[in-house]
Amino acid sequence: MKSEFVDVKLNSHEEYIEILHRLMGKAVYVEIVQIYDDKTDELIVTAKQKLKLIEEKKVNAWHGTQKAGRSVTKYTFMINDAYWKYLEKFPSFFFGSAESYGCDVVEQTSFGQSDIAFLDGKKRLLFFTITHEGCALINRLR
User: Fold this and answer.
1) What are phi and psi of 99, to 5 degrees?
2) Labelling 109: which of 33, 55, 89, 132 has CA 20 to 30 A away?
């Protein structure tokens, strides 16, 4: 059976905005996995200010990853219009491109290295990133 997730290219701000707009109206929850524990991380601080926190817990694995050697913090929030506007200010979660030698290159943006996922009202996964690896996948069935 084919995977329900397909790779998304994020090579421009326009492609990033297009993904956000595809998710608006479908996503009810946003999960942010903070790779490096930083209490001052703008992404988490802003989410805590603008969104209802559903869950905060330490995890060793999350969407698209195998069990990690250390625990990281995963936050689950209910998303709202104000947070969509906040996310639109970023250039992208990351920019990916192919290097001339055939290797993929990941350019970090002001979004940082946190992974992000969007889920529908039944907590079915719609989209997720493995940001530091330059991976973004969207559920083609939703």
Assistant:
1) -75, 160
2) 55
User: Of the candidates 53, 103, 42, which has an alpha carbon nearest to the alpha carbon of residue 78?
Assistant: 53
Phi, psi of 113 (to 5 degrees): -110, 5
Nearest-CA neighbor of 104 among 113, 114, 94? 94
Q: pTM surpassing 0.85?
A: yes
Instruction: Determine the number of helices (DSSP H) and then strands (DSSP E) in the chain.
Output: 3, 9
Give me 79's structure tokens: 């998303």
In sequence order, which ranges of the chain are alpha helices (DSSP H)? 13-23, 42-50, 81-88
- Whether 47 contacts 118, CB under 8 Å: no
Give me the pLDDT at residue 37, please: 78
CA distance 90 to 111: 6
